[in-house]
Amino acid sequence: MKTVAIYSSKGGVGKTATAVNLAYAASVSGQRTLLCDMDSQGAASYYFRIKAKKKFNSDKLLDGDIARNIRGTDFSGLDLLPAHFSFRNLDLALNELSKKKRRQALAKLFAPFAEEYDILFLDCPPNLTLLSENIIEAADILVCPVVPTTLSLIALEQLLKLFKKLNADRNKIIAFFSMVERRKSMHLATMDKYSKYPLFLKTFIPYLAEIEKMGILRQPVGATARQSPAARQYEKLWQEVLQRGEPV
Question: Any idea where the AAA domain is (predicted)?
Answer without folding.
Answer: 1-174
